[in-house]
Amino acid sequence: DGEVHINELKNGSTEMFWNPTSEVRRQRLKRHIVLFEEQTDFESERLWQHVTSAINKGDQHKATQEKFVLEEEQRNAARERRESGTEWKPLLFRHDAGTNEWRYKYEDLRPWDPLNDIAQFEKDGILQTMERHLSTRMSNHKATCINNQITRHKRSAKDCRRRKTSDQPSNHSQNTESSCSTPESVQELSDDDGKYLGFESLCAQCGKEMNHLKEIHSAVLSLQKAQQDIHR
């Protein structure tokens, strides 16, 4: 978000390459980082603090020295592990033998869903996404509950029709209302806050999860409102 110039050493001329406007600066992504005092020794900002400080002061010689010290410590640590036969086990990365590259263990490469994804956050180095809807596990469980209820509903309707056929009602009783009501069409099934019309309510686990997700969603909305107030 700063100016970038191209300096021509041969003739000493300077050309503006990039000059972000105030509109560009307003649209930049907000950066959220862990507080410096809460970082561990091997997190980049803390590990490279002396190199960064030297660069900011324009002291290239000091920055090079500090960088050499860090790299030498890493080489010595690798040498000691190799000599002692200690295997290095990264907490957050795994080695991909196919591409010979290190990959983040908890990477989520699916596109962002603005209708379902609420926020993405980091906890203990693990990136997680808070979603507005039920997780896949709960969705599958809910679908199983509904299918079981549909099966019971159809079985009840079949028993009802069988009783109607075997009763052989008289002419008088044919004009009266049947004691077994006609089952509702499965197509009329609708989802409204976890209640399914024409069927029994969700099982206890589904209901508990629904209430829990509603509480989380309410808390997120409250936080968003507080952030908007702070921004204003």
Automatic annotation (TrEMBL):
Residues 144-191 are annotated as: Disordered. Residues 151-164 have a biased composition (Basic residues). The gene is Osbpl5. InterPro entries: OSBP_sf, Oxysterol-bd. Signal peptide: none annotated. This is OSBL5 protein. It comes from Ploceus nigricollis. GO terms for molecular function: lipid binding. SUPFAM superfamilies: Oxysterol-binding protein-like. Residues 167-188 have a biased composition (Polar residues).
